[in-house]
Amino acid sequence: MADLTESLALTARPRTTGAVKSDQWRRRIGVLEWVGLHAVGLGLAIVFVLPFVFLLLTSVMSSDQALTTDLWPRTWHWENYAQVFRTEGFVTWWKNSLMYAGLGTALTIVSSTPVAYALAKMRFTGRNAALMLVISMMMLPPQVVIVPMYLLWAKQFHLTGTLWPIIIPLAFGDAYSIFLLRQFLLTIPREYIDAAKVDGCGEWRTLLSVVVPMIKPALVAVALFQFFYCWNDYFGPQIYASENPAAWTLSYGLQSFKGAHHVNWNLTMAATLLVMAPVIVIFLLAQRAFIRGVTLTGVKG
Amino acid sequence: MSATTFGRGATPATARAAAWTPRQPGRRRRQNLAALGLIWPWLIGFGIFFVYPLVSTVWFSFTHYDQINPPTWVGLRNWRYVFGLHAFWQSLGNTAWLVVVMVSLRVVSGLGLGLLVVRVKRGAGLLRTVFYLPYLAPPVAATIAFAFLLNPGTGPVNTLLSKVGIQGPDWFNDPAWAKPALTLLAVWGVGDLMVIFVASLLDVPAEQYEAAELDGAGPLQRFRYITIPHLRPVLTFAAITGVIATLQYYTQAVVVAQVASGRADQPGAPFDAGYPNGSTLTLPQLVYSMGFQHFETGSACVISVVLFVIAMAFTSVLLRRGAGFIAAED
């Protein structure tokens, strides 16, 4: 009996200790992996944030210190930001950027939603061809048509020197926004639209009172994208408004700012951060809508 | 019928492909009119802002036009001029470099960061935000910021490098380092791809990984035989849109050339496109300098047509490969 338990224990024991050992081992590898992953994550996060940190630190240095290799400000000059706002043109550029981005976004949403709805939910001859054209326009480099476009706005409409040549076309639908909204509209079940039709709604009624309330998150995402696109646009203002500094936007004016304060990296960095700030603040407030929008462009469908 | 309702919007070939045999002509016509009621403003815009300038661009490319006197037909003269231009081939070479190095590094690092965000357990949300933020930085601002960070004399990057005993390169002032420096800027802004990859990675069914693990597949094998095939459509999308974005590469190159060459410090100084030594020159910059600085309308339009042909070639690949992601619902 004792022999038997002994032999059982003998045969059993190595197996259990082995199992315990490999269990511990696995746990240890798990811990190592956890630590390694999070260390890499933390390290990369620091690398991605560092440029912003250096900008901020340099923006509050004195003009002399900003020209040295120092990384940390000796004295903190927050008044640099006030000086940026006092620079000639800066406030005007802010206003112009807000006008271009605000009006441009509103026009884009109003003009693109009906087209996206027709492409996603209505049956008509040539729908696929229209979709292909929207995608082609989305992919087309703006420089392909820029020379005749400029001549059109300059010679026929006499609107160069203003931002209107880049705002007015948005009233006719923006390909990227149409495509994004169409992708989102595909996810809305047909039954809602059919139900509205049965209740006697026409296409416009259906769109405005049934569809639009359902796609609010997508409209927010598209509006954000368009706002940022206009805010960041450099080529458009350069082509149409470069001759008239009173019509410049922040994105276009910023590099001439470097010219006005040519050796003052501190003021240039303060201005740079002031151009980035609205975009980053809006993003942090509306992150969820945003990420959903980015995802829509590439994968869903 | 398709041609009449769609007007000049459709090319004959695509219209024919999209046409169907109407079984109830009355109903079909009603539907077409209803759709037309929604899309007519876009059709007008399409004509004015796309068809008209595209046709004009092709026409101007065969003319001499100084933007004052009416254009005169010169046949292939502009084409021969542009194709004999060193700057033209240099721009194409730079674009090819950016496609090969910048686009592939962006795809690889976007995928790497995506994998990291998906696997990290604590702070994944924060990490995603941090990786995404630089993508949002306005290109002009981000470029000026990098011109400062990588400024050879006093920039923080070279300062840090010298602290560990490395003599940093001249970055934007050295023809050999200007494109790598622009690549760093592009990789910093890789957040858009990262988010797309994260969404796609989260879509991979967990059972597939579990089943593979039971069958004894290691992490590398699982990545190779489950993750990569699942991501293939997204990878294709990222690569092709990356190529098309690179064809348009403009703002960053222009701004960095102005700031690094010191031209931005001297208002009114002639713009040194592609500084240093044409190493950052791209086709869009040639369109700008020819069309808007030298008023060689015809030659600028030749380059526009070249850009158009290359962009459309890649777009057609996207349209064919991406049949899934653009497919109609009904």
TrEMBL record, chain A:
Matches recorded under Pfam families: BPD_transp_1
GO biological processes: transmembrane transport
Bilayer topology term: Multi-pass membrane protein
Stored InterPro entries: MetI-like, MetI-like_sf
Membrane-spanning residues: 31-57, 98-119, 131-151, 163-185, 206-229, 265-286
GO cellular component: plasma membrane
Sequence ranges assigned to domain ABC transmembrane type-1 in this UniProt record: 94-286
Keywords tagged on the record: Cell membrane, Membrane, Transmembrane, Transmembrane helix, Transport
SUPFAM superfamilies in the cross-refs: MetI-like
Keyword Transmembrane (UniProt): yes
Main location: membrane
Domain of life assignment: Bacteria
Location in or out of the cell: Cell membrane
Family designation: Belongs to the binding-protein-dependent transport system permease family.
Protein name (database record): Carbohydrate ABC transporter permease
Lineage, broadest ranks: Bacteria, Bacillati, Actinomycetota, Actinomycetes, Micrococcales
From TrEMBL, chain B:
Residues passing through the membrane, by range: 33-55, 96-118, 130-150, 181-202, 231-250, 297-319
GO biological process per UniProt: transmembrane transport
CDD domains: TM_PBP2
This protein's record includes keyword Transport: yes
Lineage top rank: taxon: Bacteria
The ABC transmembrane type-1 domain, residue ranges: 92-318
Predominant cellular place of this UniProt entry's protein: membrane
Stored Pfam families: BPD_transp_1 (PF00528)
Location in or out of the cell: Cell membrane
Region described as Disordered: spans on this chain: 1-21
InterPro entries in UniProt: ABC_transporter_permease (IPR051393), MetI-like (IPR000515), MetI-like_sf (IPR035906)
Membrane topology: Multi-pass membrane protein
Gene Ontology cellular-component terms listed: plasma membrane
Keywords, ordered alphabetically: Cell membrane, Membrane, Transmembrane, Transmembrane helix, Transport
Similarity-based family: Belongs to the binding-protein-dependent transport system permease family.
Record protein name field: Sugar ABC transporter permease
